[in-house]
Design goal:
Blueprint lengths: L1 E4 L8 E4 L9 E10 L2 H7 L15 E9 L11 E4 L2 E2 L14 E2 L11 E5 L3 E3 L6 H5 L2 H14 L7 E4 L5 H12 L3 E6 L2 H9 L4 E4 L5 H9 L2 E6 L6 H7 E9 L12 H6 L3 E4 L5 H14 L5 E6 L3 H9 L6 E5 L3
Parallel strand pairs: 10-11, 10-13, 11-12, 13-14, 14-15, 16-17
Antiparallel strand pairs: 1-2, 3-4, 3-8, 3-17, 4-5, 5-9, 6-7
Helix pairs in contact: 3-4, 3-9
Bound molecules: NADP nicotinamide-adenine-dinucleotide phosphate.
The site of NADP nicotinamide-adenine-dinucleotide phosphate has 31 residues, from helix 1, helix 3, helix 4 and strand 11.
């Protein structure tokens, strides 16, 4: 099969001919129709990710058709259109993953930037009927992370005011769609006025450009304060989120794109009784709940751009430049 292979830190990802994977016991083989990028793939390429291993076929998100079942795997899955839950072996504790068993498809295991991928059969789910393969491939990792952040962790309720930072991001974009669908009042930040305009068209009620020095003042004037804030940037902007949170508010972060969080004033946090929560991916139950919500609300992930698999390196650079609004997808020709 053809696959995008990463052979070392800061190496361009290259299309190569490699042997087809063979499904082991309890596994199925999925012929991919589409895969999608996550920022994780860029971090791995730059060597800024734990547990690096080379060569590796990256890619956590994918949708396709089951073509083979290994020993003990459900053979009725063969021929089914599926999407893959990339959060493997979460474990029994709904509050956190088991660090001994949990792993994410696309490192250490070979991932979805390929003609075929093998996965444990329990991690393939019917492709939502209202989505194309490309739209479905855009959903799993971002949808799972966003769903858990917004609902399992923050417990967002209809009518609450929620702020989503960096709304152009793949996960943030889905968080925004989920929050709008839940009936929350949604506000966004972005570093791009163009992306803000798109977010407003998708149901946001207000916004700020985080590149403006007075961006928090603008948000305060529009919304007062926020019951829920979902962030993946961390860094120096994070303390401003503490100021923007309403008393009793919940701030959930799942990334640290802009680095360390410094200078938190403890009194500002405890006097408002804020809950500062973190999250990573989600459990199998979170994934199923996310799929049900997406089907019920007929949510369609925003696909910014589709690259052919062969142009994987260009797709990674496009993500690295934060040029996207929504997900970047790779179309896989078999
Ligand atoms: N813990 C987990 O399970 C998990 C899961 C998924 C992702 N993540 C992490 O979450 C982050 C986002 O992932 P992704 O795949 O959604 O990446 P992505 O699609 O590349 O999005 C990143 C976004 O970050 C925003 N951003 C950059 N600088 C910012 C700033 N100073 N303030 C606010 N937003 C800023 C940009 O938004 P604008 O373009 O709108 O400016 C950009 O589009 C990454 O760090 C990733 O590693 C963690």
């Amino acid at each position: 099969m053809q696959a995008l292979v990463l052979e070392g830190v800061n190496q361009p990802i290259r299309l190569k001919e490699v042997p087809d994977p063979q499904p082991g016991t309890g596994e199925v083989l999925v012929q991919l129709k589409a895969a999608a990028l996550n920022h994780r793939d860029v971090w791995i390429q730059k060597g800024q990710y734990a547990g690096l291993k080379f060569p590796v076929i990256p890619g956590s998100d994918g949708a396709g058709i089951v073509t083979k079942a290994g020993m003990g795997a459900d053979t009725t899955l063969i021929g089914k259109e599926v999407i893959i839950n990339p959060g493997l072996f979460w474990g029994d504790n709904p509050r956190t993953h088991d660090r001994k068993t949990f792993r994410i498809l696309g490192l250490p295991d070979d991932g979805t930037f390929a003609g075929y991928v093998k996965v444990p059969a329990a991690y393939v789910h019917p492709k939502p009927a209202h989505l194309s393969f490309e739209q479905a491939a855009a959903l799993p990792l971002g949808g799972l992370t966003g769903y858990r952040a917004l609902f399992t962790r923050a417990g967002l309720q209809p009518g609450e005011k929620v702020l989503i930072t960096g709304a152009g991001g793949g996960v943030a974009q889905l968080v925004m769609q989920f929050a709008v669908a839940r009936g929350a009042q949604v506000f966004v930040t972005s570093g791009s006025d163009e992306k803000i305009a798109k977010a407003m068209q998708m149901g946001a009620s207000g916004s700020a450009n985080y590149r403006q020095p007075d961006w928090t003042e603008g948000l305060k004037a529009q919304a007062g304060s926020f019951d829920v804030i979902i962030d993946s940037a961390a860094g120096e902007g994070f303390i401003k989120l503490i100021d923007l949170a309403a008393p009793g508010g919940r701030i959930v972060f799942y990334g640290g794109t802009t680095g360390l969080i410094n200078g938190i004033v403890p009194g500002k946090v405890f006097w408002k009784q804020l809950s500062i929560l973190s999250t990573t991916m989600g459990s199998e139950a979170d994934f199923e709940a996310m799929l049900q919500f997406v089907a019920e609300k007929r949510i369609v992930p925003v696909v910014d751009k589709v690259f052919p698999l062969a142009d994987g390196e260009a797709a990674l650079r496009y993500m690295d430049n934060a040029a996207q609004f929504g997900k970047i997808v790779l179309a896989v020709e078999n």
